Amino acid sequence: MIYFDNSATTKPFPEVLQTYVTVSEKYFANPSSIHRLGGEVERLITKARQQIAELIEADPKEIVFTSGGTEANNLAIKGIAILHEARGKHIVTTEVEHASCYESFHQLEKNGFDVTYLPVDRNGRISVDDVERALRSDTILVSVMHVNNELGTIQPVQAIGKHLQQYPKIFFHVDNVQAIGKVPLKYKQSGIDLCSFSSHKFHGPKGVGFLYIREGVSLSPLLTGGTHERGLRAGTENVPGIIGMTKALRMILEKSRSEMNQMKELNSFVREQLTTMESVFINTPKENSAPHIVNFSVPGIKPEVLIHALEDKEIYASTKSACSSKSKAVSRILEATGHDYERASSAIRISFSFENTLNEGKQFIEVLTELISNLKKVMR
Amino acid sequence: MIYDHIIIRYGELSLKGKNRHIFVNRLKETIKKKLKPYPDVQVNKTFDRMDVVLNGEPHFQIIEKLQEVFGIQGVSLAVKCSLDLGEIKETALQALKEAGSEVKTFKVTTKRNFKQYPQDSQELNHIIGGFVLKNSEGITVDVHNPDVEIKVEIKPEATFISCLDFPGAGGLPIGAGGKAMLMLSGGIDSPVAGYLTMKRGIRVEMVHFHSPPFTSERARQKVEDLTKVLTRYGGTIRLHVVPFTDVQQAIKKQIPDNYSMTIMRRLMMRITERLAAQNDALAITTGENLGQVASQTLPSMHTINEVTNLPIIRPLITMDKLEIIDLSHKIGTYDISIRPYEDCCTVFLPSAPKTKPNRDKANRFERNMDIEQLIEKAVENTETVYFTEADEEKKDDFKNLL
């Protein structure tokens, strides 16, 4: 099997699963219970929070555990909007955000907010100048993803964050879900106020993630109840998930240091090969893109057909974002980059992990070449 | 990164006259222990400072560690080069370039310990400054208020060049001044009092009064966590956990409500004094602060103080609460201190404690109790645990999970 769909989700590390099982068995007590068992679990969570904080160079107070990336994005965007709407109801974002942000903005629009969706260039990238031009006196939030989940394009979040430091009243949210472990980011130094993470994108368990909230930033909780997570997110902690995620984060950052070259090699090999194929167009920009994503179109062939044909050969890839791939035929992201219908509706995304090898890349190219030539004959 | 050295400068230590070597040796020991996790670093003592040779170890982490060591006035990141003037110029330029992109102005200060060097300090300032100016863009000289001061120290064996300075923790090397017992409740004040005592070179041992089941395991955990944080500044620290339930119950039974707290504090003092004697400590440190709560009025302190003639160190005595809170944030104990678990002082808190107790009455009430037996039992059953900064990691039972 060749698993090239790591942007949809990753396979949990065996060590992480081991932790998950041990924690579920041994540390099952409710961390809010006042007895010793509860106390132990609370200590475990404290330790995990500390470790995450160290790994992303933040303070433990700045980490809020959530049920995943979608919740982290929702909490950041709506949490800021709800608490600070008296100061202004304008938000700046991009046309290419993940559905969990995009739909949050739509919802806010229905509630009287004004949202500016910045256009992107051919590469799917916005510019710092566009952000500056979009700012108004009533802007309270700028939200930009770090790495685009379909294209792998890296947005200039560092430059935007630095620029926004002139506007201390505007909050800056970064959806970092696709980037962690692949594209480094200095959160503190880049003027980022809120940053979302999802465990299952870096070989952790599903159903857990976290939001970095810079000290001094206040927002409204979305889930109310007990005083978990300092009142920002009620609900009994997903303890095995949190501990598993913490371990996965440590491991992915270690691998990111030791195995990045292998991934880059695989990436450039696949890109080179795809470039030589006549009927294939690469959508992922060559410069300033994440090393784990290659998006390409094969106009004339329905991407679903290609996905299923690959799957017959035990190769797993995606059409577009898994979260929106069941909705409509054209990719909203590729449309935004200005590609024509043919190309925007025939995109395939392959996405790597540090476990993928150059050999798998070679096999993939072989199979793809053969499939395309066969399918072309049939479709004609 | 061209920086390969850290220069450690002493503060007050240099004033210590003939005892100076004792303080310096203490400091060196502390630094060596502190840098144990970095096996490749090398610490060298010279006459007026210490040099840490990095040998490739991460400099910013090491600087952070050194900033927790008392007795250090400041540290500088430095690079060592030969005495060749060409190399000195080139190195100074590199050092400035790596000092950060925000640097706009600089000046050069040369110190020439090696008096045989052909050029004197003034000439060297000109030569090096001129070279740096010519070979960099957008940077000018400002001798009065520069962003960066390039310090060039010419010694007989080599040249040291530094640009980046970091403040140290100040104070005196830990252990140079003997030992005190710190009464650690778990609140905001006592850890800060411990920190400030250690800052003057005094080692502390913690005394915590534990009253199960009235106080929970988590209250004890809190005190252990606070102790762990303080090992950053104090190295190995002993924590004495005194079983206090019997004492509190006896007080509840035999002492009028409004004097119960005064008597409780007097018993704590006596027990701590006993532990001090056992552990060769010559003083007691508390987080007391004038006027903050009932036990901290002057009449109250007067009444409580009667039971011991050990010196009582009260570093916070005249500080405002907000100053104390600021410090507790700075030393990293605040977030632990505010965990909401009751300690033995709050569990039996009377509804109206006496704010003006007096010694006569306290002595009279105490006659109803078998004080000596209560103290002896508490001291005998005291449990002692050690905490060391270095093996904090090792002891951690969650290590494999995370």
Could you explain the architecture of this structure?
The complex is a heterodimer of chains A (380) and B (402). By secondary structure, chain A is α/β, with parallel strands linked by helices. Chain A contains twelve helices and twelve strands. In chain A, 41% of the residues lie in helices and 14% in strands. In chain A, the strands form three sheets. A seven-stranded mixed beta sheet of chain A has the order 2-8-7-6-5-3-4, with helices on both faces. Chain A is globular and about 70 Å long. The model of chain A has no long low-confidence stretch (mean pLDDT 93). Chain B contains 15 helices and 14 strands. Chain B has helices at residues 20-34, 59-66, 85-97, 121-134, 189-199, 217-234, 245-254, 260-278, 298-305, 321-331, 334-337, 344-347, 359-366, 371-380, 392-395; strands at 5-10, 42-45, 49-53, 72-81, 105-112, 140-141, 148-154, 159-170, 179-183, 203-210, 237-243, 283-285, 312-313, 383-387. In chain B, helix 5 (189-199) packs parallel to helix 6 (217-234). The model of chain B has no long low-confidence stretch (mean pLDDT 89). Classes of the chains: A alpha/beta (380), B alpha/beta (402). Chain A binds chain B through residues 19, 22-23, 34, 36, 39, 42-44, 47-48, 51, 60-61, 243, 246-247, 250, and chain B through 216-218, 221, 335, 396, 398, 400-402.
Keywords:
heterodimer, A: about 375 residues, alpha/beta, Aspartate Aminotransferase, domain 1, 2 domains, 3-stranded antiparallel sheet, 12 strands, B: alpha/beta, Rossmann fold, 6-stranded mixed sheet, 15 helices, 14 strands, elongated
Short account of what is shown:
The complex is a heterodimer of chains A (about 375) and B (about 400). Chain A is an alpha/beta fold and about 375 residues long.
